[in-house]
């Protein structure tokens, strides 16, 4: 019995859980393109310091389609593609819900039906609070965290505010990490540099200035964490939802010149510009609207799909919320529906293969390597990575640890202990098997002496049965882990209020 308990204990140690539990802070700066980090005129000493003291992705994150804010933030925290988590876009319509989903940055007072978010995905704060008795999460403006999902919200939340300063958000979350009942998971969303990117374009001096403000905000964060003596105990992931592509008035596609406006409705507010549009033809008008759109798609630089024609690689169409028709502009082009005052600016939401759509990724802290980089990772890999960092078993997801595991320190919890404990387990199993074998042989000889030769029809059970059972449970443990693997003074950062 003692041997059995020892085996179970050793298998538990070998399952990859760290002895030391670190806190985790996930920060998202909306619309921070991957190469704002490396191809910029901005002075970014703090971001460079973070890259040198931690890990980063040279080509950024491969995000999910559509490359918009809400689907990507929900994919970060659930590890699921939009067709699996249901937050298909910034605007959504569900056939079983009477009101469409409208994002808070368009209509702050609008009450969205919580079922739009609670549609199958398990956000990291639910996993954290469900699995850990001391699991406490804090969310500052993270998209979706205001909703009950699986009957839970983050332990502490701050709702979306248009005029919040980054440094104020930092003060709040650092207080949460150091309170009498501290959080072990913090999520911080900030709406810049997206707003500035939309208004002035990604190549503007305004973006350069905004990136310097982001850098200054991070300097403040690190100073606060150092002041509270937290830097050695917290892992920090700093990333974004999507990039930005420059758009100009010359590349606007006015849908009203292509399709009769009386024959369809679309999800959105205002005349645009839109990189993609969910189109709902009026009854009996599906083919007519589709054919009119299709007839000018090549000459006007966009694609149009009926729901079933949407490419599988978008991981988007297998959901009841998919629109009957999806129109998708090519990068630098945008749909409008009437007059728009903008002459030059930025947009996102295009094909997620387009490099300008990819966001940046930096991570630092005791669990990460120092001065290490990889080419790219997937947005859906963040959930299993965060679960690993927090010692949680991930809910089923579309991400993988395969690519991200190389970012981690080869600490005791990742390799040596695991290998050593497996060896120990094998030694224990071998010993148990050996004892059984010797005992069986002795018993066999004893019986032989007493009874003479056995009749040919009687067979002994395999002496190594117990060892075999223990090895099977070790294999089962491996399979479980594998299944789970698959499965952002005067420069203070503030928000430019013009956005869409
Ligand atoms: Zn945006």
Automatic annotation (TrEMBL):
The chain crosses the membrane at residues 416-441. The keyword Transmembrane applies. CDD domains: Enpp. Keywords: Membrane, Signal, Transmembrane, Transmembrane helix. Residues 1-18 form the signal peptide. It comes from the Eukaryota. Gene3D superfamilies: 3.30.1360.180, Alkaline Phosphatase, subunit A. One of its GO terms (molecular function) is hydrolase activity. Coiled coil: none annotated. This is Ectonucleotide pyrophosphatase/phosphodiesterase family member 5-like. It comes from Biomphalaria glabrata. The lineage of its organism: Eukaryota, Metazoa, Spiralia, Lophotrochozoa, Mollusca.
